[in-house]
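forwarding from the other thread:

> can someone predict this with pyridoxal-5'-phosphate?

sure thing
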Amino acid sequence: MQKPKIITNLPGPKAQKLLRKDKKYISPSYTRSYPAVIEHGEGCWVWDVDGNKFLDFNAGIAVCSTGHCHPQVVEAIQKQAEKLIHMSGTDYYYPLQTQLAEKLVEITPGGMNKRVFFANSGAETVEGAFKLARYMTKRKYAIAYLGSFHGRTLGALSLTGSKVTQKQGFGPLLPGIFHIPYAYCYRCAYNLEYPGCDFACIKYIEDQLFKKVLPPDETCAIFIEPIQGEGGYVVPPPGYFQKLKELMQKYGILMIADEVQSGMGRTGKMFAMEHWNTMADVYCVAKGIASGMPLGAFIASASLMSWPPGAHASTFGGNPVCCAAAIATIKLLENGLVENAAKVGAVIMKRLETLQAKYEVIGDVRGKGLMIGMEFVEDSISKKPLTEKRNAIIYKCFEKGMLMQGCGANAIRFSPSLIVTEEEAHTAIDIFESAMKSVLR
Ligand code: PLP
């Protein structure tokens, strides 16, 4: 059985040397929770420059869907790099881009009559989808959620409603974006309880927003994260998205699913929207699509994606090497990894629920597949966020040889690669509990 192995103080001497240089040359806007200086990776494991071995339970921020350096992905990248590295898919044709588009159309809900636009990142994907929605509907306004994260380019940032530091100093942002509370039942903005609430949060959109400030017939789209990611791994209750879709359809407003984090099998289904049997009009994917190579895509019906040449394009989007990595990734996802995400996710969830029953500071455990969040609170009545303790637990995990990340004000996310085994999951939860115990003692 593989275990983490910490052989130096952390950060070790080589890591310290690099950290000094990094401080000098890298933008200080980056957000590092602990000084992990990684040298190589394999599966769910990474080694730092001093030879310390860590269990990576975050998969490069939910990106390395097939684990670090999966041999089939590496082979696909190497083979393609020898043949053609770049051509610019918006100006030329090459087989891999078309082949990947066909595959994405096949695996995205909604039949084969769809089209794909390729970008390089999550933010760019959301930007493009936003432009498509405005262009095709000729409507200017949009709805997004408090707590949402859609990226840091100016359009995506305007939609983002996660942390004020992400927006401070960057205004004016895009006008005409209205943020509403997410279906965050653990902290309901309306102080109601599901299912007795009867989706008051959706009624609010029609009864308040649409009547008082936002003309629905001038609204192009609502941007949804099927599970809110950076905002705290928040899972809406059953029926929420169906109801929301009904309302949006009534007013001709497009539903744009930002599946940048929740898509590509992470939740135990290829797309998280499948958990709610609700179809979005546009699907945005990035992160896990190419196991770490930079690629994003948005997918919409052919009738919706019918803008003219020149309306939108990208030099690097759909780069052949990234497409090769994505094709290899999707093959692996279809051949068992999506199922594995559901299976091992259930094991993790069960163990975390057992921890929740044991520790009062664990206020909520929620998620689907391998997208699981745990919220830390002072007590179950006040639900006061325990941000510093959350941060300390993440740091302690690092010291014990496991990489974790936070989300929201006081949550920790469990988002390992989709190749994670049950044995690795048990190792992770054991380390996690021991880190928690040392911080809480
Ligand atoms: N959308 C969601 C849901 C995300 O989680 C992220 C990144 O965390 C983004 C968009 C932005 O992606 P990127 O950092 O690749 O621009």
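Residues 121-123, 126, 149-151, 225, 229-230, 258, 260-261, 286 surround pyridoxal-5'-phosphate (CB under 6 Å). thats all i got for now
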